[in-house]
Design brief:
Length: 470
Amino acid sequence: MAKTASDIRGVIEEKEIEWVDLRFTDPKGKWQHLTMVAAACSEDELTDGFMFDGSSIEGWKAINESDMVLKPDLDASYIDPFSATPMMILFCNVVEPGTGELYARDPRSCARRAETYLQSTGLGDTVYVGAEAEFFMFDDVKFNTGYNESFFKIDDIELPTNTGRDYDGGNLAHRPRAKGGYFPVAPVDSAVDIRAEMVSTMLEMGLPCDKHHHEVAAGQHELGLTFGTLVTTADRMQIYKYVVHMVAHAYGKTATFMPKPIKEDNGSGMHTHFSIWNEGNPLFAGNGYAGLSDMCLYFIGGVIKHAKSLNAFTNPSTNSYKRLVPGYEAPVLLAYSSRNRSASCRIPYGTGAKAKRVEIRFPDALANPYLAYAALLMAGLDGIQNRIHPGEAMDKNLYDLPPAELAEVPTVCASLREALDSLKADHDYLLKGDVFTADQIESYIELKFQDVVRWEMTPSPVEYDMYYSG
């Protein structure tokens, strides 16, 4: 049953909450917040929302139209385990004050519209999303980009570059080598207790988690957050990233969701699982390839057709495309397969119809989860509506294909510029049901092109190495 403002006030009083943290997500995917004194949060304000200035959020309002409303979703409340004094987190949608309508450029509102659109199509009533976000933890990170210098330097106890380093008390030697982190026990895996605390913290907050493990690269990790509905999973991904950052910080380490912080090791992705249900029945199960229904195959067909424009949301950084290269287990090739991890769309093994789903492997965790999941759903629905079949499955290692055959397999984008240009050319499928708006997409492209221009105009240390003496 939906919570009311009275319910929230009851929790505030019962748990002696001192602060209510109103949290929302900007177009780039960063969690933002406004902290209110709990006593000042009346039932009326909890119901109607709180005024705030939206002009300072990149990609949103101009200074002359800055007034906006943060309207709490009372069903999305959590107790913050990191606050020194009791604090409640409330997820908020952003609302236009004049009309009371959800703000078109608000990512969470966009994801809500995507769920509503699915229901309006009659194709299903629920979409379930499961996301696997990988991340790195380091002991020390330095970087600078200035007028006369540009550099970064990272260090961590696990990096294979530290095998010959002198440490106070001696070098204890146990650490993963490049591509060797999946997944030896401690002491090679040095972060078991840190990951365990991350998972236990999320469980304490009410998130469904089932595991944690070391990933392939040194210093790379993953926590097992299980599936939920689209908006709920996007909310949980924001909490996931917050908990990872905060627990790492408490241990004197620093965490990053950059897809490719290390050149010569695997990058971090956010493999994303989708399934559509109706009246409690899984619609992706059938009698076709790998036990899939035609609906699921068409969903895959839509994702593959629109993959290059999807990349603008699922892989929204210039660094994303340093991960999407052959040789590091990255899903570059747009194909589908049962259990084959080199395909961009994988059908995981599962027992029973309820386990049937498609895993889309090219997204990374710098994606705004609300926009990425909504866009993936819209691409899949376009595939279903237009019966876009993905062709034959490819059950062999795609990177071992002969060059002539490999050339026939389409790929994801090679750069953020290509992804944004693809989104410009291919976005009509996102506009159905007013889930995305043309203004929102145009604003997003303009915002992300700032990253492209900055990256393309900045000399790199690599260029000095390649060209200085030329």
